[in-house]
Amino acid sequence: MFQKMLENVRKNCPLIHNITNYVTVNDCANVVLACGASPIMADDKEEVAEITTICAGLNLNIGTLNGRTIEAMLIAGKRANELNHPVVLDPVGAGASKLRTETALKLLKEVRVSVIRGNISEIKTLALGSTTTKGVDADVADKVTEENLDEMLAFAKTFAKKTGAIIAITGAIDIVADDEKAYCIRNGHPMMSSVTGTGCQLSAMTAAFITANPTQMLEATAAAVCMMGYAGEIAYHRLGEMDGNATYRNYVIDVIYKMTPDNLEKGAKYEVR
Amino acid sequence: MFQKMLENVRKNCPLIHNITNYVTVNDCANVVLACGASPIMADDKEEVAEITTICAGLNLNIGTLNGRTIEAMLIAGKRANELNHPVVLDPVGAGASKLRTETALKLLKEVRVSVIRGNISEIKTLALGSTTTKGVDADVADKVTEENLDEMLAFAKTFAKKTGAIIAITGAIDIVADDEKAYCIRNGHPMMSSVTGTGCQLSAMTAAFITANPTQMLEATAAAVCMMGYAGEIAYHRLGEMDGNATYRNYVIDVIYKMTPDNLEKGAKYEVR
Amino acid sequence: MFQKMLENVRKNCPLIHNITNYVTVNDCANVVLACGASPIMADDKEEVAEITTICAGLNLNIGTLNGRTIEAMLIAGKRANELNHPVVLDPVGAGASKLRTETALKLLKEVRVSVIRGNISEIKTLALGSTTTKGVDADVADKVTEENLDEMLAFAKTFAKKTGAIIAITGAIDIVADDEKAYCIRNGHPMMSSVTGTGCQLSAMTAAFITANPTQMLEATAAAVCMMGYAGEIAYHRLGEMDGNATYRNYVIDVIYKMTPDNLEKGAKYEVR
């Protein structure tokens, strides 16, 4: 089934509007291209409504936010809602500062979001109002493990119900849930956390997947999460003795570029709960 | 002849002031270094006039523009004009929003531009006032083909005459024209469109080429366009079975770094019409 | 001894707040991860005090500065001082514009800086009030050579005494000095100057090193400088015939990721004067 999700991205080549941080923006653009979609980045309030209009999906990422871009995100989000375009929210660093937490909550309040994609600390911040945080990385105390998985799945479904959004929590075990159904995904490799922005990349790619598969957004989100993680696995096995995180960064994107729908189908490791 | 153009870049190592989008800025800097010039990026109105002054050429790229950077582009452009420094304008996404279209037109009105480098949709927007657009990519309907090439060459020459600038339209077939003479360039590889910012990179490199060859700007622009496309060809042939767009991105820049004037001369595929 | 410095980075994994330019920010993040620390980038005045608070060290880089980020740097710097967090200042392009020179001087006046890391032209600008400059690169006239080394060491120590900061001047020969003791470092490779931002990367890595080694900041800074230079040497020897500056960029970061404390100890080429 994930096969079909990727096929639709490649076939429809959706244009995705990204308002995203300047740290990982280049990788986000190249990942969107790698999976078969087209990116455009624009963050000024004077143009974002128009840019959202010519696009088919929207990715809002609050890393390196500022007053100017926050306003642009709200305008773009509302315009996407008017047009019924899917919207991904990546609450990078929610919990690390009031500005990030409040901006993410404001976006959730004023914009109908299709998918919220973050690490467990970020999602807990939004769902529970407070949490521990370690900057833009998840706190170890929050980690999703086999032991607390049932609890975490219930948490994700409850938050999905509350927000009306699909909740994608990524980490060693990934969870993709709506209010009724959850995918537990076991793709990925620990080395992915040594590359900046693999989460941002996934959010951008998720926007491409749900835009190309508007009637199956839960499955499309799960497919994107599997694809990112599986790419991390394949790329890891390609590394030579002297390769570190910079080469790994490139290889992950390369794998996404070369991934066939069949490969994705075979490599996806998930169960539905 | 293109040989000489590259030799002059390497010999003079011109310092190029870039006001450019944050998506592809790192690649622009590395490409400018790869071809033998030096980049500096600065976009605040308080400093751009000074930065332009210590540089020898200016590259204005309107991707991810905003009120602050638009003002900086105007100041830098006017200062470059005072100093008789060559100016490249890359109207990224002109046609995709009023802000981009109007900013590009304002820059053309208030700044004497040496080269306008864009895809066909962007150039048509500036020349004809309206067009179709697909975000930052050219619309298929606009495509330069063998069938419409004569018409497109005439279009480019007319727009060159109107603006006083060299017009560089890049795509499957590239056109570099002033009001009298046009180069049709058939270097390049389709995979270049799967890397974000190859157009931005070319604009930055073009600024280096025309700055190092001030008396032969048409030829220098054509040389830069050939060099980018030829690098795309060589880089493509270097790709292994598992390499995708991320590795390709690096290889293109690598080829530019290693390109000798002789190689460029031999690899350039063009005719003058 | 440098062995221990790197071990402490890997063991403590300090979280480093970076306010840095958008040209090289992605490489800065990946280098911080490569050496074993964690980066967070945030530059809005509304959140920088909080972000600095959850971090353990601060890296201020004035490349592509603007009014908004200058204010943020001052707030973050003062907050870091209150918390006794180490602060690195990278005065990118000081001397190239009044805004850069004055911002660097203002930061030095209002913030207690632990390390100033720049090229010789930038450091001379701050120490002597004026200098020649070639954009963001050092001017040849300023170059540290075997002939003027004693004089340069004295200059660095004097400036260290004046500012209370460790002075790290990088170039063909690197100098790392406090008011009493100086390391002359002969690691590095000329090709590093063909990659944009190796200086920025070093500043970010230096912040990680001094944060993880708060009682030995001089040695920690020297260790970071050796590590960057030695990585440049190893990466250079890994280059194949077709590899240029883009692959080199990746290889340098890869080497940092793979560097063991033992390797660093063995490869560091320095004398104390």
Structure description:
The structure is a homotrimer of 273-residue chains. Chain A is built from 11 helices and 9 strands. In chain A, helix 2 runs parallel beside helix 8 and helix 2 packs parallel to helix 10. With 273 residues, chain A is an alpha/beta fold. Chain A has a 9-stranded mixed β-sheet with strand order 2-1-3-4-5-6-7-8-9, with helices on both faces. At the A-B interface, helix 2, strand 2, helix 3 and helix 10 of A face helix 5 and helix 10 of B.
Chart the SSEs and their pairings.
The structure is a homotrimer of 273-residue chains.
Chain A: H1 2-12, E1 15-19, H2 25-35, E2 38-41, H3 48-54, E3 57-61, H4 67-82, E4 87-90, H5 98-110, E5 115-118, H6 120-128, H7 149-163, E6 166-169, E7 174-177, E8 182-185, H8 198-212, H9 217-238, H10 245-258, H11 261-267, E9 270-272
Parallel strand pairs in A: 1-2, 1-3, 3-4, 4-5, 5-6
Antiparallel strand pairs in A: 6-7, 7-8, 8-9
Q: What is the rounded distance between the termini of chain A?
A: 17 Å
Q: What integer value in Å does the Rg of chain A equal?
A: 17 Å
The string of secondary-structure elements of chain A, in order, is HEHEHEHEHEHHEEEHHHHE
Name the assembly state: homotrimer
Q: Count the E strands of chain A.
A: 9
Biggest beta sheet summary of chain A: 9 strands, mixed
Report the mean per-residue pLDDT of chain A as an integer: 96
Helix content of chain A: 40-55%
> Beta-strand level of the residues of chain A, as a percent range?
5-15%
Strand order of the largest sheet of chain A: 2-1-3-4-5-6-7-8-9
Structural class of chain A: alpha/beta
Structure annotation, total helices of chain A: 11
Would you identify the regions of chain A where 5 or more consecutive residues have pLDDT less than 50? none
